[in-house]
Amino acid sequence: MIETQIQAENINEKREFLDELEDPYELYDEEPLNNAPYEELDLKEIVKQEKKKIKILNISDIKKGGRAGFSLYRLVPYVFLILGFIALKNNNLLDISIYLPSLLVGIVVGYISSKQ
């Protein structure tokens, strides 16, 4: 299994956990920066190296994200919210001129309380 991964060049070198915490974007990497003049740079090689660094989404990553996006803990509150608006609209109790300012008050109070 390892040999097939090596032949497919599917090698993911992982950094140590503490290194990832301290420098998640590899800003303090030990590799020297290429400070050569523009005329001496091999731009095609640089583009190839940068393309290798890009991760492509695969089906397993999409499945993991999809499960979290469609969980009941997310869907039930949205269904409750939508049904509440429909019920208010059908009973002629939804007054936008009152709803929006009261929503603004809740946002301001939430913002102030999160700052403290």
TrEMBL record:
Keywords: Membrane, Transmembrane, Transmembrane helix
Protein's recorded name: Uncharacterized protein
Stretches that traverse the bilayer: 72-90, 96-114
